[in-house]
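Example record for the data management plan.
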Amino acid sequence: MEHVILVDTHDQPIGTMEKLEAHQKGLLHRAFSILLFNSHGELLLQKRASSKYHSGSLWTNTCCSHPLPEENIEEATQRKLFQEMGIQVPLDFAYKFIYKATLDHNLVEHECDYVFIGQFDGVPVANPAEVEDWKFMDLTSLREDIRENPDQYTEWFKLIMRHPEMSGIAI
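Corresponding structural encoding:
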């Protein structure tokens, strides 16, 4: 069973808990979101596998997950990006934010989310256990689609796309 790092509102670790239990109880834990852009400024999106225990078949950022209790966040980003998308690229920390969102299956996502940015011009090798589909999309079209079809995107990704830091992201 995978465990997450529980944190306080200052992002200080206060313990660990099994991932599903943390989502059932809505406890604040550490997470990360990765956004990879190609050289045309398009964002690589993934459609989460329908078998995921929450937010299945929804479009989201390139990769997102949680660091394991014994791993630092940079190691975790590289591990999950390769596991989900078959990609290894340098990443830069952009910002972090805390959010709380109600999800399907009576789960609550309450995360201190570290957002990382990188560049990738290749073709991902998506893990079908994690990813159902992928595509590159320009930010103008993406923001318009999120406005028109919000139920097709994950809650955290909609927050990332509205975050003030996103307007200053250098691609």
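Summary line stored alongside the record: The longest strand covers residues 91-102.
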